[in-house]
Amino acid sequence: MLLLLAGAAAEAQVAEGSVAPLTDQPGDPARGKDIMLDPARGNCLICHPAPMAEVEFHGDVGPDLAGVGRRYNTGELRLRVVDARRLNPASVMPAYHRTDGLHRVLKEYRGKPILTKQEVEDVVAYLMTLTENR
After folding, report:
1. What span, in angstroms and rounded, lies between the C-alpha atoms of 72 and 70?
2. Rounded to two decimals, what is the model's pTM?
């Protein structure tokens, strides 16, 4: 059965734990890495350890991103970035491309996703490059 994510990702079909591409443009892994490191956009390393030796601090709340590109396919990773709570309702990971059903959102951010569709694709493209385990 196909379900539709509401809000900004309404056209992304969710089937069997994955999301179809959000854009016609392929993601750019270099931009994706920049987004992941940017405290105003992704800030992924605040929670996740990752194979990025150039960054001193890595969080340990989320799973290690080393090897994530081998553990999941692009659609599965995209779903985790778009809205990880679709897979785990208790997840503390932000919904980077969902706007509905959120609580305590500042007025100026209501209705706006954290990441654009292309930024989601860029992050997923970078995550797919992380194929080596530690």
Report:
1. 6
2. 0.85
